[in-house]
Amino acid sequence: MDKMTLNDVDVEGKNVLMRVDFNVPIENRKIEDDNRIKQALPSINHVIEQGGKLILMSHLGRPGGEVDKTLSLKPVAEHLRTLVDATVYFAEDCIGEEASSVIDQAEAGEIVLLENVRFHPGEKGNDESFCKKLSDHAELFCNDAFGSSHRAHASVAGVTRYLQPAVSGFLLEKEIRYLSGSVNNPDRPFVAILGGAKVSDKIDVIENLLEKVDTIIVGGGMTYTFYKAKELPVGDSLVEEEKVGLASELMEKADEKNVTFVLPMDSVIAKEFKNEAEHKVVEEDGIEDDWMAVDIGPQSSIAFGNIIKNAQTVAWNGPMGVFEMPNFADGTNAVAQALAEATEMGATTIIGGGDSASAIKQAGLEDAVSHVSTGGGASLMFLEGKELPGVVALTDK
Ligand SMILES: Nc1ncnc2c1ncn2[C@@H]1O[C@H](COP(=O)(O)OP(=O)(O)O)[C@@H](O)[C@H]1O
Ligand SMILES: O=C(OP(=O)(O)O)[C@H](O)COP(=O)(O)O
Ligand SMILES: [Mg+2]
């Protein structure tokens, strides 16, 4: 990477403002998967061991620019205390008096975690005054939030307008190095698998992916916008109405470009969005009114698995179903298993995304694939061949 990293700066005695991606799954104040926190520890420990005062900031969920206490980072501060050998303070706001007084209280070698930056509309809006207020906390900026680096938001990119040098953390550097090496010149066939729930964000990347890959498999919550475009019944399944037209165009473009485009041929549908709900397997034209699709079906798992096992490079983002509910995790587990088998046979397999990383861990296969990335949207943007705003904003070497 041609950007400065933490190794290029002296942090001793300095306030270091570090953007991390602590957007982790939390249930009843308990952190369900702390992978993203652990992955940031090399940068965190480096700063405190070198005698810097570390000010961490992150988002959690999508509170929409308003305070939402259910999306507080306080449980993350509590968890971080169990992972580091330093005092961790929590500031109830990321700017203003509250933040300043907690930061003043902390000493060199200690850590302050600021409250969710998305409680302020200026974060997503990348507003000048909000960027300025964040930048006033420190003398140096570090981005280690690979999973958020596709967002041109204040705490990821905007803050660098006022705070230089702006350097890469070790996780960001590692992620970019791995992805550059594996997907810039991929062995073929190159297969991309897209699923998950962030349909409106991630459907947009497909157009550019058509230039890069041989096959695109769509599963998970991404499926039913395409089903709607094919005029198949979708019941109460996740559909992004505004993207139905785009879904049709993408299927046509895939055809023109000779990219194989694969959708599930069956789904598991459920009466309610809960694990114990009544559920059954139906064919692609069988989704009934008042039912919702919650997983790909068994035929799809086999078909997807066969494509994956014939690939030389596989990039997967987004679970195939609501894997957090054990009854709807089969499709995701089958795809994870196929990735593991492809890896065993010599393929390069990359799985990315906060939730996808949790899913592969849940399947016990995180060591059986080539690389588990902390970013879903971010790794897709990289795969598209675009520059990530959170990387572009950093200081050149
Ligand atoms: N058919 C579906 N309907 C609703 N949600 C789904 C469906 N399939 C997968 N999901 C959800 O998608 C979420 C993850 O999506 P996303 O954040 O885009 O993936 P990642 O974090 O891996 O990038 C999971 O919480 C999962 O429950
Ligand atoms: O979880 C994240 O991305 P992912 O679900 O694509 O892995 C990142 O924290 C970005 O979150 P956002 O999609 O709300 O900007
Ligand atoms: Mg996610």
TrEMBL record:
Pathway annotation: Carbohydrate degradation; glycolysis; pyruvate from D-glyceraldehyde 3-phosphate: step 2/5
HAMAP family: Phosphoglyc_kinase
GO aspect biological process, one term: gluconeogenesis
Binding of (2R)-3-phosphoglycerate, residues: R36, R118, R151
Localization of this protein: Cytoplasm
Binding site residues for substrate: D21, F22, N23, R36, H59, L60, G61, R62, R118, R151
Protein name: Phosphoglycerate kinase
Binding-site residues for ATP, renumbered to this chain: K202, E324, G353, G354, D355, S356
Recorded catalytic activity of this chain's protein: (2R)-3-phosphoglycerate + ATP = (2R)-3-phospho-glyceroyl phosphate + ADP
Similarity field: Belongs to the phosphoglycerate kinase family.
GO annotation, cellular component aspect: cytosol
Keyword Nucleotide-binding: yes
Pfam families: PGK (PF00162)
Oligomer and partners: Monomer.
Keywords: ATP-binding, Cytoplasm, Glycolysis, Kinase, Nucleotide-binding, Transferase
InterPro entries associated with the record: Phosphoglycerate_kinase (IPR001576), Phosphoglycerate_kinase_CS (IPR015911), Phosphoglycerate_kinase_N (IPR015824), Phosphoglycerate_kinase_sf (IPR036043)
The protein's Enzyme Commission number: 2.7.2.3
Gene designation per UniProt: pgk
Single GO molecular function: ADP binding
Matching Gene3D superfamilies: Phosphoglycerate kinase, N-terminal domain (3.40.50.1260)
